[in-house]
Amino acid sequence: MSLIVQKYGGSSVADAESIKRVAKRIVEARRAGNDVVVAVSAMGDTTDELMDLANEVTPIQAPRELDMLLSSGERISMALLAMAIKSLGHDARSFTGSQAGMITDSVHGAARIVDVTPVRLREALDEGAVVIVAGFQGFSRESRDITTLGRGGSDTTAVALAAALDADVCEIYTDVDGVFTSDPRIVTKAHKLDRITSEEMLELAGSGAKVLHIRAVEYARRHGVTLHVRSSFNNSEGTIVYDPERLPEGGAVEESVIAGVAVDLGQVKITVVGVPDVPGAAAKIFKIVARTNANVDMIVQNVSAAATGRTDISFTVPKSDGEKALTALSDAQESLGFESLQYDDQIGKLSLVGAAMRSAAGISARLFEALYEAGINIEMISTSEIRISVVTRADSVNAAARAVHTAFDLDGDDDAVVYAGTGR
């Protein structure tokens, strides 16, 4: 008997009919002889609606109470799904994150999993029940409070359960047929990948691809969990995310040069103008930024002007971190000695990802030629072994993605299908 962990996102359980459809899929897996554990997100836009309600009550929410509020969405989903499965003649039991043994640190809104003790889940499985777990949430032993895991938390919940229960596979169900070569809402000719390495998926997720969250991919890679990204709206085979050192059945495969093109509109660019070009200046700047817990992505320093002995340093951070990084630098202007700050929230990042880029020549030239022919101006560039990222204007980054996708022969024959619209 195999143990399967399944995760269903908000679009997959958006309403009563969707929940009943998901219940039938789960029962089919159980009838096939599998033990089944399910991590479920809040219904549709419930989390956003709860957040809006909190903002109406007060613009500044207590983190502990906000976690209590937001975690209620998944509890609604888990109970309704368990009811639907029971109506089909199979035993099902729902568990909150704390009941499931999801132990986290005490950081509200962005807690990290420190341990998983699924004692009650194993007991339920041994008694023949389907196990339904509320995603996105856990329990801190330190503070004895409910915590939430932040964006992509239900993905991370599913992967953590799969690792703790030694599951055969972790199936991530969403509203597209798998991992595509680009976001099908932006690049309609994007095509589904049958398989992708965990290394490539990490780069794509970190570069803005929304089908899987980077924390879930990191956790899966670290614990040897095989991911299968599928659509909850059909029975098509999805995309296997695998570790090359743990190849799936079928043996070695030749990796494609380019796995995909990702777009990220969630960053801002901060430019520190007129920085004294002396040793330690950059260290002082980024030490101050680090104190705000802002996650710096790309950094570019201009050549020093000989006449002034000063330079400009630009860097990007998530929009949620932009204002606090800007404020911290502004407060330290006198001690740092720079002239001014510039804040740009109208940027977009495009990333080209492929594990075989290590040994393929001419990738950069081909990328920049495609952008030139599309009339796209590049503002920043960064690279890794398997990724090239560029920053351009927000209103041109989608056109850039389509141009690059075509230039690298990634276009499929037919338009991709998005069943619900959110991609999660």
Automatic annotation (TrEMBL):
InterPro entries per UniProt: AceGlu_kinase-like_sf, ACT-like_dom_sf, ACT_Aspartokinase, ACT_dom, AKii-LysC-BS, Asp/Glu/Uridylate_kinase, Asp_kin_monofn, Asp_kinase
Pfam families: AA_kinase, ACT_9
Record-annotated ACT domain positions: 270-355
GO cellular component: cytosol
GO molecular function: aspartate kinase activity; ATP binding
Amino-acid positions noted as binding ATP in the UniProt annotation, renumbered to this chain: 7-10, 174-175, 185, 210-211
Pathway: Amino-acid biosynthesis; L-threonine biosynthesis; L-threonine from L-aspartate: step 1/5; Amino-acid biosynthesis; L-lysine biosynthesis via DAP pathway; (S)-tetrahydrodipicolinate from L-aspartate: step 1/4; Amino-acid biosynthesis; L-methionine biosynthesis via de novo pathway; L-homoserine from L-aspartate: step 1/3
Protein name, entry field: Aspartokinase
Amino acids binding substrate: 47, 74
